[in-house]
Amino acid sequence: MPKAIHIINGPNLNLLGTREPEIYGSQTLADIETLCRDAAPQANITFKQSNIEGELVDFIQEAGRDADVIIINPAAYTHTSVALYDALKAVGIPAIEIHLSQPAARESFRRRSFVSEAAVGTISGFGAESYLLGLQAALNLAKASG
Length: 146
Hints:
Blueprint: E1 4-9, H1 21-24, H2 29-39, E2 44-49, H3 53-66, E3 69-73, H4 82-91, E4 95-99, E5 121-124, H5 129-144
Parallel strand pairs: 1-2, 1-3, 3-4, 4-5
Pathway: Metabolic intermediate biosynthesis; chorismate biosynthesis; chorismate from D-erythrose 4-phosphate and phosphoenolpyruvate: step 3/7
InterPro entries: DHquinase_II (IPR001874), DHquinase_II_CS (IPR018509), DHquinase_II_sf (IPR036441)
Keywords: Amino-acid biosynthesis, Aromatic amino acid biosynthesis, Lyase
């Protein structure tokens, strides 16, 4: 049975490709989705994005019913959202936090992640490849869990 992986993307990631390409790269979110689907054709990937915190919570809850693993790029909500932390803890499936940039090397307010405290691991700083590394880790976790 194909492994179900939900890839959840937070605010402003819909602007990838044009938003600060020196930090986030020139690939669009659609480009990254295609990379993920091409890299794991055997997986059942659900790919979503929202700028609204409550919708992201809904996506996490949906993943808790349907997915083996969550990959989440919470973007700016990384540093502020107890709601995402609570949702990830509540659903009871592994979550992998990813970032295109390296938050620890940026502004000091970006060094705290509420989400990482609910994740099994964090991958950051590799641009679009962070998604592929996260996807490989998700496939490994899903395989290990049965």
